[in-house]
Fold each of these.
Amino acid sequence: TGRLTSVTALAALGLACAASVFLWLVLVHKRFRLTREGFPETLRESWKVGKWLFSIQLLGALQSQMTLWFVALALGTAATGIYTACMSIALFANPIILGLSNMLWAKAARAFQEGGSTRLLRESIADAAQLGAIVGVFCIAILLWGDDVLSLLYPKNDYGGHGDVVIVLAFGKLLYGLVMPASTALA
């Protein structure tokens, strides 16, 4: 309808997140028991690990956003639009990477608990190889048909001929997938 702006889009996302959290709280509120007893100690213990996990998430968010800002500042908004279109195709690998990474957390914790760092290292290498093989197939497809996919999804002439950018971004996702098991194991 032409009424979507950056403000209304962010407001819609905020409302959707708030509604999801509210519904979740309604469904699981009986599982929680909040008391002041032991709160400071629990907070200190949680922060020992939490500060590193928080830092990783914050840096990841900054990394993904700063690239867009640097492209906009260096090359302009048209180049940012082309970069975003190319990235949207490379991000087709994300459901695979993120879906498998969710399982890696539990798998890494179990490997460390049952076999220590030796087993964790062995399983992390195997997981990286499996994830690399899966995302590698995606990268080969992008290598062969990346420009065609870009032209299909973004038929305007401005986007054609940037298949090389899609390829570089897809292989960046491959590298991200390869380091995911190691990052999970370290956490």
Amino acid sequence: ESATAELLQHWRRREPERFRVLDADIPFNYSRINNLAAEQTHADFLLFLNNDTVVISDDWIEGLLEAAARPDIGAVGAMLLYPDETVQHAGILLGILGLGGHAHRFLSAQAPGYCGALQAPTNYSAVTAACMMVERAKFASVNGFDEALSVAFNDVDLCLRLYEAGFRSLYLPYVRLFHFESKTRGGDDTPAKIRRAMEEIAYVRLRWPTFAGNDPFYNPNLTVDAEVFSLRI
């Protein structure tokens, strides 16, 4: 979008020592472009942030940084909301809806959630990279995003590799953003996109068979057919 290009140029001129734009003239690959960016910075912490988000909470970066600096924490995620202020993301649950879904999706942002978890810092197997902070050294220790996952589940795969290395993922309820899900890239609504999505699902299932069928952070007595934490009947 021309407005985006103009905004980037504005900040290039205003903060030439602090603001850089890296051009990557390649087919869209979320993992690749973020790995390229991570290679170009020596910052101690990395923030991955979609362009279809709007920050709505104060001290959001400080909140992410405080958690990401903990030695036992890998990826740190936020509460992401739809425009009507219902939940789009509050942690990722594996083994449901075929492979994975978002905890508490469509609940009010003010709801307590399952056992109060929507309003409390909570560990999950994964958090979305639409807004994710991770310490650079931890990110590098697991070799960053897997570029074989160009669009979907690259964040899940990263979080699971961090978990395997001893770092837990953490959701923070007080870091809040609107997320206009897939507004820029679009949904998986063409034969090619559907085929790519199915290939990425199969890739994650093959790599993480245990997590794909049994999330250690999700009660096995709860449903695998929805994101509402209801009893499995």
